[in-house]
Design goal:
globular; 3 helices; 6 strands; alpha/beta; 6-stranded mixed beta barrel
Length: about 130
C-alpha cells in the first residue's frame, strides 16, 4: 500500500497525474495496480486526505547528476473514492511518540516530520486506518 502527498489541482478529479514525485520509505516500489491514498498537500493549500485510488501507470525517473538524488517516480491514479472526513496535519500533529506503533503516528512521521511532498509505502495498519475515512 502507498500514499502520496502532492499538489492536487482538482481534488474531485476522476484521475490524477503526478510527475517526477520524490519517494521515501519504499515509495519507489509503487507499480501499476497498487492501491494509493491521495493527500492534497497543505503546503500548496490542500486539505490533506482527499481520495483513494488505483495506480494506472508508474514510471521511474532516471537519476540525473548527483548519486544521492532521491528516487523519483511519475504515476497516474484512477480515483476510486472521495474522503468523507478530514485528515491532515492538524489531526495528525498530536501523534508524535515515534515508537508507539499507531497508524496515525506512522503517517505523521512519514508526511509531516519532513514536510516535503512525496510517495511513501505504508503499513497494512496505516492502510486500514485510512480506509476508515471513506
Amino acid at each position: 500500500m502507498f500514499a502520496i502527498k502532492a499538489e492536487v489541482g482538482d481534488p474531485r478529479a476522476e484521475s490524477f497525474a503526478f510527475n517526477a514525485q520524490k519517494t521515501m520509505y519504499g515509495g519507489k516500489h509503487i507499480t501499476k495496480g497498487d492501491t494509493i491514498f491521495v493527500f492534497a498537500s497543505e503546503n500548496e493549500g490542500g486539505p490533506g486526505l482527499i481520495a483513494s485510488g488505483v495506480v494506472t501507470s508508474s514510471k521511474p525517473i532516471a537519476k540525473i547528476g548527483t548519486a544521492r538524488q532521491t528516487p523519483r517516480v511519475s504515476i497516474t491514479v484512477r480515483r476510486t473514492a472521495l474522503a468523507k472526513r478530514r485528515l491532515g496535519r492538524r489531526e495528525l500533529k498530536l501523534f508524535s511518540n515515534w515508537n508507539d506503533g499507531r497508524p496515525e503516528t506512522e503517517l505523521n512521521f512519514k508526511y509531516y516530520r519532513q514536510a516535503t511532498n512525496k510517495i511513501v509505502g505504508i503499513s497494512a495498519e496505516a492502510a486500514a486506518f485510512l480506509r476508515g475515512f471513506f
